Amino acid sequence: MTASEPAEVEAEAEADVVVVGYGPVGQATAILLARRGWRVTVLERWPRPYPMPRAVSFDGESARILAAAGVGPAMTEFGEPSRDYTWRNAAGDVLLHVDVPERGRSGWPDSTSMYQPALEEALAERGSRLPGLRVLRGHRVVALAERDGHVELTAVLDGSPPDRTRRLRARWVVGCDGANSFVRTSLGVETTDFAYFNDWLTCDVVLREPAVHRPNNLQICDPARPRTAVSAGPGHRRWEFMRLPGEPAEEFGRTESAWRLLGLFGLHPGNATLERHAVYTFQARYVDRWRVGRVLLAGDAAHLMPPFAGQGMCSGFRDAANLSWKLDLVLAGTAPAELLDTYTLERRAHVQHAIGMSMDLGRVICETDPAAARDRDEVMIAVRARGLREDRAQSAVEPLTAGFLRGGAAARGGGPQRPPQPSRPGRPGPPSVPVGDLVPQGRVRVGDRTGLFDEFVEPGFVLLATWPAGGHLHLRPETDAAFALLGGRLVNVVPATGEEPPAVAAGSADASARITVVDVDDVYLRYLALAGADAVLVRPDFYLFGRVPAAAPPAADTRAGGPAVQRSDSVEELVGDLLAALGAPIPVGKH
After folding, report:
1. Using the 8-state DSSP alphabet, how is residue 438 labeled?
2. 263 and 271 in contact (C-beta within 8 Å)?
3. Residues 355/62, Cβ–Cβ less than 8 Å
4. For residue 38, which of 16, 289, 393, 409 is within the disulfide window of CB 3.0 to 4.6 Å?
5. Is-contact 365 221, C-beta < 8 A?
6. DSSP labels for 490-554?
7. Which of 521, 406, 538 shows the shortest CA–CA distance to 465?
8. Are 227 and 241 in contact (CB under 8 A)?
9. Average pLDDT score over the chain
10. What are the start-end ranges of the H helices in 35-187?
11. What is the mean pLDDT of residues 513-518?
12. pTM tops 0.85, yes or no
């Protein structure tokens, strides 16, 4: 092509969803959509994956999401249990110590230390096995516009003349293109910025000789130099140092400064290799709107937070899990597009809490005033010595209080409203498990196999219940068929003691998949009891949509021979409320 010829434009390609950006959050989003059968195209500006780590850990809920994406078997290749986390002051006194459970609420370690390049490699390998997923690297998006029920994107190809572009059309676009997101900028959405800024020097190191680190993760709250030493996955370590007020930024990021500061931990070029060092400015902000028309934002494109609660990438994985099942239903015509407005409502509330918690921890860790640090130390040491506070990790995630929940805002902004549900008879007060709770995962047995619940029941809408002995849980045929088209599953939970029924209901003409699981660790039966419920309906992202309150003993009518009083709520009504909240007819199949 000569300079006088018109610009070369490659033919338009069609996709159900275009994901912009292929870091871990973009990878998870693309995989969770492609595994549901949708045509997903990824546009990634860089021709090759970034070879160095950025994040170094994820929590148990994130591990469950990654397992749902298909990389659970590879978890030990890129991650290891974080084990413990200790805060010390400048004198070495323990301010806080947390032992991290290796089997937490979500069935995985409450914290996993990971090597990010290996995680991305595992996700990329998983994505390569999905026929509907196409990844185009070296494609920098430079324009997008919504037209006629689609979004049109233009990308410049790496290494090509700037006037050579590729155009694509998609029904939906998800911007996972990071802190400097082009997608976010093009939408012009407003941002809530907390004006929180701290510079930290990050040093990724490989030790020449293996070593056992006790504690495995250490925070030194020293006003003279706040600093951190943590696992960065199998065979990798990270040390971080805060830039002090008035310290020249240009000198702080030099290699000489990195080695001088690493010397505080006894590291030098003779016993360690400095793989990478870089200065990061920690920030705290989130976008006010996560959806504009057919374009959505996720991950760092939607929010940034300091790393002190370890929730930056985790929040992105939650975005992917929340968004993927809702977008799946919208693409299938099972739910209206308004369902995606609950994505903003739910994820923004979670992120607000995580950002607030991260900043609060940062204010404690980053204290540089010696007198204030001394006061902090005295209080934390005294509280710990007197047993006034239990040393345990505070959850960075709270239950959902609004969004796609029974009795909350549904797809069309309303949905069935239910009065507060009573607790199980004999239990004082309301249930201790709220709607919107993150449902735990435990081990179950099916036949002669034992494993995590998700190994037997693929994530989707799950009705978890205890069926009457010798009985069967029934839905009306039309309700059952509609629930089945949602991919709904009915799971009967039985205790680990006693006679076990067949794993699958035999001879059932019902449409929904049915399975019986043995509650090996008493996770689910205990959860039902805490929820004051005979049944709970779990969303595909593992959050509680609603419950059926435990049945009260039948009460006799005052008339002789009168009928028993019927229950005020039922499984039929619970599933019916879900279908009504979606507010759209169920099609025969995807198109």
Report:
1. B
2. no
3. no
4. 16
5. yes
6. EEEEEESSSPPPPSS-TT---SSEEEEEEETTS-HHHHHHHTTEEEEEE-TTSBEEEEEEPPPPP
7. 538
8. yes
9. 88
10. 60-69, 75-78, 116-128, 182-187
11. 90
12. yes
